[in-house]
Amino acid sequence: MSAVVDMPGAAHLVLADGVVHLDPEPAVLEAMLEGWALQQRTRFLRESTIYPRIALVRRLARFTNEYPWQWEPAEMEAFFDNLRTRRPGRPLAVSTARNHQNDLRLFFDYITDTRYGWPSTCKERFGRIPVQLLHEWNTITHCSEYEGAAERRPLTYDEVQALFDAAEGRVEEIRARRRKGSLAALRDAMVLKTVYAFGLRRQEACGLDLHSLRHSYVTHLIEFGYPEKFVQDQVGHAYASTTAIYSHVSDEFRNRLLRRSLQARHGDLWGQEA
Which of 79, 109, 136, 154 fits a disulfide with 248 by CB distance 3.0 to 4.6 angstroms? Predict the structure, then answer.
C-alpha cells in the first residue's frame, strides 16, 4: 500500500487535525471536494472545467442521499438512468453522459488513491472505504466517430456519391417503367446536388430537410484545403465560430494534418528533409 504523502489535495492537508465535527459525513465530503479541486488546480485545469465536475459529484450525492464511501454500482446506474429519462422528448446526449461518467471516474480515482489518504480516513471514521464504481462493463463505450444528431452527421465522400447515384437512378427507373414522376425525381436529384454544391440552408432549399449536406459541404471544403475565411464567406456565416460548428473533419484528415505538421518540423524522424 502506498504511503500518504503531502500531495496537493491529500486528506490530512484539507481536514483539520484535532477537530471533532458534529456532522462528520458532510464535513468529509466537502473536504474531499476541496482536495479534488486543489489537485486539479495544481494540474493547471481551468475553473470552467473544475466547477462542473464538483457540481456533478454534489448532484450525485443529493440523488443518492449517501456519501462516496457508501456508494455502490447500483447508485451509479440509477443516477444515469435518471439523467437519461428525466426530460421526456429531450434525451441526454450520449457524449454528455460519457463525459459525466469520465468525470466521476476521475473523482473515484482521486478518492481511492492511497497516496491522498482518503481510504484510510474513511476506514477510520466510517468503517468503509470508497471504491472505483465505473468500469468498462457499466459505462458508455466510445465506438462511433460521430455521436451527434443523426440528421446533422456529415456524410462521407462515398455516402454523398451514393446519395446522388440513388437519386439519378430513381429517374432512370421511373423512365424505364414509363410512369409519371420522372421530372419530379430529376428535380429532386438536381436539388440534392445544388444544396451540396453551394452549401445551402434548409430554408434556401424550400424547407427540405437536407441540412446534413450543408454540414458535409463545409467539412469537405476544409478537408480539401480551402482557406477558413473562404469557407465562412461561402456559406454566409458572420462569425468563424459558427462555421466551426459545421466542421466535422474525419479522423483520416486529422491524421494527415498531424503527419504533415510532424514532417515539416521533424523531417529527419520521418526519413525526409524538413
Answer: 154
What are the C-alpha distances in Å from 43 to residues 8, 58, 131? Answer: 10, 22, 23
Q: Where in the chain is the domain with CATH 1.10.150.130?
A: 11-138
Helical axes 47-64 vs 24-41, angle rounded to 10°: 160
Q: What is the pLDDT of residues 154-165, one digit of tens each?
A: 888 888 899 899
Rounded CA-CA distance 29/270 in Å is 51
DSSP characters over 92-142:
PPHHHHHHHHHHHHHHHHHHH-GGGTHHHHHHHHHS--------GGGS---
Q: What single-letter amino acid sits at 136? A: E
Alpha-carbon distance of 69 to 118, in angstroms, equals 9
Q: Are the CB atoms for 40 and 50 separated by under 8 Å?
A: yes
Q: Are 108 and 60 in contact (CB under 8 A)?
A: no
Report whether 63 contacts 82 (CB < 8 A): yes
Convert the pLDDT of each residue in 80-129 to its tens digit: 999 988 877 777 888 889 999 999 999 999 999 999 999 999 999 999 99
Alpha-carbon distances of 49 from 10, 45, 56, 181, rounded to whole Å:
20, 7, 11, 56
Is domain 11-138 in CATH 3.40.190.10, yes or no?
A: no
Distance between CA atoms of residues 235 and 232, nearest Å: 6
Nearest CA-CA partner of 104 in 45, 38, 36: 36
Contact between 91 and 132 (Cβ < 8 Å): no
